[in-house]
Amino acid sequence: MNDLAANTKILIVDDKPLNIEVLSETIEDLGDILFATNGQAAIDLCIEQQPNLVLLDVMMPEMDGYEVCEKLKALPETKEIPVIFATALSDENDEAKGFEIGAIDYVTKPISAPIVIARVRNHLELKRYRDYLEQIAFIDGLTAIPNRRRFDEHFQSEWQRGVRHEAFLAVLMIDIDFFKPFNDHYGHQAGDDCLVKVAQALASSVHRPGDLVARYGGEEFVCVLPDTDLAGAEITANTLRKSVNALKVPHEFSNVTDHVTVSIGAAAVKLKQSMKPEELVKKADNNLYEAKESGRDRMVAA
Predict the structure, then answer these.
(1) Would you call 234 a catalytic residue per the annotation?
(2) How far is CA 292 from CA 178, 265, 273, 285, in A?
(3) Three-state DSSP class for 260?
(4) Can you tell me whether residue 218 is helix, strand or coil?
(5) Residue pLDDT, tens place only, 218-253
(6) Domains of the chain: residue spans and CATH
């Protein structure tokens, strides 16, 4: 197995173990094989494991392949996972239905090993290319951390997930203190260097898979913290503030201290269907304003 295949996960979904075994042996060199024997198990695995591709049987009891595909395409966490239907059905209407609900291809049973291998390989390569383009589109060109577009998408996804589970969600709004005088006196190149250092310090201070630090615009950053209440948000905010202080980037024109600092506004809520995402961001932004008005180099939470 090559390096690309080693980092590739393929989910085979079929209610007949023998079919899973045959498909698995056919494509085992293309990636790590996961399997599920019913629709709900397939959906749960997609959410948890994020496979690069799903080979999905159409004819299954309780929840057929069409319904599984529809559910996957309806979830923010799984909608981008490519689905190939593996089926004995050969009617054009069946194929058309599959494409309409989001499948990218069909392979027919009994399977032809060379055709299955070629189609799976081609779709895996297309997925890698799309992921690469998406990654570029979501990265801030200067700081190399996620950009505002990525924040918007991730925040919406975590909001929807949190509403489903009535989970906590926290947002931190972060601003570099007295950045304009820094730029004016040290020059724009030094300002860019400062932004890069602060961005990397912030991004390296969060570690959970769902946590995200992004550049919000100018000298402002934002942090999304899923499954985090206000107490947890305060802890993370202070960690971020200390990580920037530890850089000791000289700033002779700050009214706070002799080096670069940040102010942070934190807000958290236990999500419910009736809430609006923009309200949480606005609350964090209001708290950021309070942090700046009350002296800077501090965190305000509510």
Answers:
(1) no
(2) 10, 9, 32, 11
(3) coil
(4) coil
(5) 999 999 999 999 999 999 999 999 999 999 999 999
(6) 3-137 (3.40.50.2300), 148-301 (3.30.70.270)
Query: Quick check: 96 pLDDT over 90?
Result: no
Rounded CA separation 208/108 (Å)? 41
In this prediction the pTM is 0.69
From 77, 219, 234, 278, active-site residue: 219
Quick one: average pLDDT of 85-89? 83
Tally DSSP H helices, then E strands, for the chain: 11, 10
Residue 290 half-sphere exposure, CB side, CA atoms within 13 Å? 13
The residue assigned the tokens 């008005």 is 293
Distance of CA 247 to the CA centre of its chain: 28
What are the CB-based long-range contacts (under 8 Å, 24+) for 124-130?
A: 124/8, 124/10, 124/30, 124/31, 124/52, 124/53, 126/82, 127/52, 127/53, 127/82, 128/4, 128/52, 130/80
Scored b (16 or more CB within 10 A) or e, 60-79 reads: beebbbbebbebbeebebbe
pLDDT digits (tens, 9 = 90+) for 182-214: 999 999 999 999 999 999 999 999 999 899 999
CA dist., res. 52 & res. 31, Å (int): 9
Rounded to whole angstroms, how far apart are CA atoms 300 and 31? 47
Helix, strand or coil for residue 113? helix
